[in-house]
Amino acid sequence: MAAEPPSRLTYRTTGSTCLHPLSELLGIPLDQVNFVVCQLFALFAAFWFRLYLKPTKTSPDVRHAFATIFGVYFVIFCFGWYSIHLFVLVLMGYGIMVTASISNIHRYTFFVAMGYLTICHISRIYIFHYGILSTDFSGPLMIVTQKITILAFQVHDGLSKRPEDLSAEQHRLAVKVKPSLLEYLSYLLNFMSVIVGPCNNFKDYVAFIEGSHTHMKLLEVNWKQRGFHSLPDPSPTGAVIHKLCITLGSLLLFLTLTKTFPVTCLVDDWFVHKANFLTRLCYLYIVMQASKPKYYFAWTLADAVNNAAGFGFSGVDENGNFCWDLLSNLNIWKIETATSFKMYVENWNIQTAAWLKSVCYERAPWYPTVLTFILSALWHGVYPGYYFTFLTGILVTLAARAVRNNCRQYFLSSKALKVTYDVVTWAVTQLAVSYTAAPFVMLAVEPTISLYKSMYFFLHIISLLIILFLPIKPQAHSQRPPQTLNS
Question: Per residue in 127-161, is it b (16+ CB within 10 Å) or e — as a string?
Answer without folding.
Answer: eeeeebbebbbbbbbbbbbbbbbbbbbbbbbbeee
